[in-house]
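Private note to self, pasted from the team thread so I don't lose it. Backbone tokens:
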């Protein structure tokens, strides 16, 4: 979607709590933004580079003596979560993301080596998805210099990764949402490691349920999102029901692409830092953050189906990435709410098993 809107920081200064409908005279539209912000070096980046350098240490090296895997020093482990939410320095993302995936999936370098071998085994096999992948590749984050050139190195690498990954799971195969995820990973890893990363996202981070036919993981995330909205923002929930706006109509692309097409690239990287640490709940929290910021626009007397859906289908440009990430950090730090989120996921599973899930979602 080409429409850019500002995601202001002021609403994020107040933590998630039970609120009712906002002022009825509130405008239904958010403030538009003319262009994406230019890339810039975050404040205190040099200091954070130094801190991450002291926090991570080499676990193993290749035959040439180059670092091939890392881990967090035990004495610094208590600082990891706070530093992830402050933003991983870009030059450390390769090592940090690998470390976070190792920790979350409880696997190590040996698994990565084995997955790399699978990548090379699959690369020459035919896939029934190859034609569609070839059509989608040039449309995938083509604003990034790595993917500018048709059949250039970046696009060929993206094709090879998606081709090999389409053969990994017969249920998931290939869906379009995989492209932006693989492309983002390619900006930090070589193709065989991207395949390994996608495999671990599929297995350990439950992306299998997001991409399986019927998108069961997507519907589960939406159910959790709606329960939080209903309990904390009943006025917003009522307004969406009144305007007959289904959550799938605007939030599907949020969860399918892990917000890759809904926020600026630098914001997406910050969300992924937290996702690789915490798991799927990060994107439910990000979705709630968006709704929280625009709650007055949604409940406005002037709001209607078109204004609300257009707003929630926009690209969100945060006024301050730190404010957004700290709000998400605080939400996910609420142990009571995290327990409720887990219970709602189990509740959805039971609804599906009993065939009572129809009509439950907006």
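Design output:
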């Amino acid at each position: 979607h080409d429409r850019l809107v500002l995601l202001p920081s002021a609403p994020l200064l107040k933590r998630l709590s039970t609120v009712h409908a906002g002022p009825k005279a509130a405008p239904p539209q958010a403030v538009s933004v003319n262009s994406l912000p230019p890339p810039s070096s975050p404040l205190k980046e040099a200091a954070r580079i130094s801190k991450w350098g002291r926090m991570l240490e080499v676990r193993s090296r290749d035959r040439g003596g180059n670092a091939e895997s890392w881990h967090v020093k035990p004495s610094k482990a208590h600082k990891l979560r706070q530093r992830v939410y402050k933003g991983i320095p870009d030059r450390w993302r390769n090592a940090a993301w690998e470390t976070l995936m190792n920790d979350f999936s409880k696997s190590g370098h040996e698994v990565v080596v084995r997955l790399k071998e699978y990548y090379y085994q699959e690369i020459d096999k035919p896939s029934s998805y190859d034609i569609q992948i070839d059509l989608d590749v040039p449309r995938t984050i083509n604003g990034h210099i790595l993917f500018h050139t048709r059949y250039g190195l970046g696009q060929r690498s993206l094709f090879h990764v998606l081709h090999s990954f389409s053969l990994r799971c017969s249920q998931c195969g290939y869906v379009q949402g995989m492209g932006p995820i693989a492309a983002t990973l390619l900006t930090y890893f070589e193709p065989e490691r991207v395949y390994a990363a996608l495999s671990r996202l599929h297995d350990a981070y439950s992306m299998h349920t997001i991409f399986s036919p019927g998108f069961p993981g997507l519907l589960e995330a939406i159910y959790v999102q709606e329960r939080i909205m209903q309990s904390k923002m009943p006025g917003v929930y009522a307004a969406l029901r009144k305007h007959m706006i289904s959550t799938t109509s605007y939030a599907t692309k949020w969860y399918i692409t892990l917000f890759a097409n809904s926020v600026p690239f630098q914001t997406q990287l910050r969300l992924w830092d937290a996702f690789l640490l915490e798991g799927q709940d990060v994107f439910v929290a990000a979705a709630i953050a968006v709704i929280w910021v625009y709650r007055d626009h949604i409940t406005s007397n002037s709001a209607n189906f078109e204004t609300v859906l257009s707003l929630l289908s926009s690209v969100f440009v945060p006024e301050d990435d730190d404010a957004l990430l700290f709000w998400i950090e605080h939400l996910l730090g609420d142990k009571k709410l995290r327990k409720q989120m887990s219970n709602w996921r189990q509740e959805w599973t039971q609804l599906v098993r009993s065939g009572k899930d129809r009509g439950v979602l907006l």
